[in-house]
């Protein structure tokens, strides 16, 4: 696999493709590369095992808020999911199974954190510096994901806190919370799973809530042995189940993207869910959001409200302002003395740290290019960064369905991108035209104006520092699949090393070049079974 470049003293490994990250996106990319006949690639993973966000998020109660049969690769169905909404151990085991089943282990480099990637404009390749050495690659596929780097707020006095502090995505399993006074900061998807999981064991739990979430009941149950047997013996039953789950969610999209007022009935159901467990009117008032449901991610839990009704759980309806020794002080002056702090404060989504480590053709980092907001072409490529792609890029997130569907669509696009490079022949690069990137993003942002995420009256992690929604896709997963079915060369500039000049897009392929395989780029319906290759961890969102 790969080869060596450079002289005797500067020999470095060279590969056709370098994939960054080994979560759903990275493993899916690896499977798709092998299916395309590309074996000259590596998967660079900074940790000591695969799994991405499902490896990192191992906190008590961690589970997915997307049904299991939809939260899995269409090319690797799992008939033996234990629950309708499976927990973190089952999902991580599934990813390990994918790595083994598709022979990916020999491509995976554990303990290889990417420190810097630089585009070599002379050689048309990426120089990649890792914590374990340097290599080069013709193409980089960045699959680090938006839920990979935890965000911990800068709270005055935090450094002087004498107790234990950790983020939900870096849970300290060696620290026993039993009998401790614990503060949980944040009320996102992680916190609503952590609170009911630890409340019975701690002495007292204090939850600091800046903004209340909308919470719907989570209809989770064990999948019976009979169901699992049917899914193994009669695969069409498994496909039908997946298709039904997908179809229901596709029908919901218009309410989020075009008709937010239709969400009023869902709000009524969420309020009824709260009223069943929260009898105290004052507490219920603190837990009732003032924004339209769906503006922030709708959370699923049947245990969250009962946990908040416990006598040993306190809700502070105000954000954490400062820490004085072991005393936490909220913005409204409420104080709580605690032994441990758990931050459930999300991730660097619109300011992903990996962007600081990617240096493009003009010598600027991706973070510098995106200083006014992330933007890409079809959620995949960025102007100024040839032969570089991202999985789960800008405006590819979802508010109601499975990110695996979006990932598989992006892998279709990746596969055709590589086919186009092969057709062009020789050492060549594709560079997204700035005009194409701008046109795509103007269209996306215009559609975003009507969505509940922009009009619902909330501030969420979907929005960047400028208030632009650069994370969510304002359409159905089926529509996104059509938009990423193949690469349009008119949206790219073709760069060749031998001529040192740009060649008009759509140039004729070299003699003997193979045409693209239409079977490989045509995906099946999003809910049924694509051959392409994904977390949102409910607890990591």
TrEMBL record:
Transmembrane segments: none annotated. Keywords: FAD, Flavoprotein, Monooxygenase, NADP, Oxidoreductase. This is Baeyer-Villiger monooxygenase. Belongs to the FAD-binding monooxygenase family. Residues 504-541 are annotated as: Disordered. It comes from the Bacteria. Gene3D superfamilies: FAD/NAD(P)-binding domain. InterPro entries: FAD-bind_Monooxygenase_sf (IPR051209), FAD/NAD-bd_sf (IPR036188). Pfam families: Pyr_redox_3 (PF13738). Catalyzes a Baeyer-Villiger oxidation reaction, i.e. the insertion of an oxygen atom into a carbon-carbon bond adjacent to a carbonyl, which converts ketones to esters or lactones using NADPH and/or NADH as an electron donor. Thus, can convert bicyclo[3.2.0]hept-2-en-6-one into the oxidative lactone products 2-oxabicyclo[3.3.0]oct-6-en-3-one and 3-oxabicyclo[3.3.0]oct-6-en-2-one. Is also able to catalyze the sulfoxidation of methyl phenyl sulfide (thioanisole). The keyword Lipoprotein does not apply. One of its GO terms (molecular function) is oxidoreductase activity, acting on paired donors, with incorporation or reduction of molecular oxygen, NAD(P)H as one donor, and incorporation of one atom of oxygen. Residues 520-541 have a biased composition (Low complexity). Its cofactor is FAD.
